[in-house]
Write a structure and sequence with these properties.
By secondary structure, the chain is of the alpha+beta class. The protein has a domain of 128 residues: Gcn5-related N-acetyltransferase (GNAT) (Aminopeptidase, 3-Layer(aba) Sandwich), CATH 3.40.630.30. It has six helices and eight strands, in the order αββαααβββαβαββ.
Length: 188
């Protein structure tokens, strides 16, 4: 416990349940699904990930993320059978400023456009604000990903600024949009 934020909630994040999705702590048991999603070019482009992934490094990452006091990682799974839909992460916890960064990656085009990202984002925000007691959740989204930006806006994120030409992808420069939601902001 640090201040009035219980960092144990990040070391051992609880399972979060929605109507049709479950956020379960991400771990090595999700390796096959995570590895498969990292092979999808569209998912990689939308998260502007330049890393060349190796199976042993991905497996090591999945082992290392718990128990870390500065991040909570979940697998997004279907409530009716546990199919892997993606992952959602609260990371870079700043206890003194009661803030955290947000990241989400869906498993691929077969799950895009079905509302999973919106519902997973809302569950993560409920955890951050309601359970943990944080004040601010922030993210950045590349300008060529308007679908994600719409999801974030639906969940209450507000644009705070633009990092011009911050992402180079496909031989072109793209802006990165900085967004955040505060515990005091209205959340639809």
């Amino acid at each position: 416990m640090t201040g009035d934020i219980d960092t144990r909630l990040f070391r051992d994040p609880p399972t979060l349940r929605g109507v049709d999705i479950v956020l379960e702590p991400l771990g090595e048991n999700h390796f096959d699904d995570v590895w498969q999603s990292l092979q999808d070019p569209e998912s990689v482009r939308m998260t502007h990930t330049h890393a060349a992934f190796r199976p042993e490094r991905v497996r090591a990452h999945l082992q290392e993320i718990r128990p870390r006091p500065d991040r909570a990682d979940w697998a997004i799974t279907a409530a009716d059978g546990g199919a892997y839909l993606g992952e959602v992460v609260l990371n870079e916890l700043d206890v003194d400023n009661r803030s955290v960064s947000f990241r989400i990656a869906l498993a691929g085009p077969h799950v895009f456009g079905q509302g999973y990202g919106t519902r997973a984002t809302r569950l993560a925000l409920d955890f951050a604000f309601g359970t943990v007691g944080l004040h601010r959740v922030s993210l950045d989204v590349v300008s060529y990903n308007p679908r994600a930006r719409r999801v974030y806006e639906k969940c209450g994120f507000v644009t705070e600024g633009v990092l011009r030409d911050a992402v180079r992808w496909g031989g072109e420069w793209h802006d990165s949009v900085v967004m955040a939601v505060l515990s005091t902001d209205p959340r639809p």
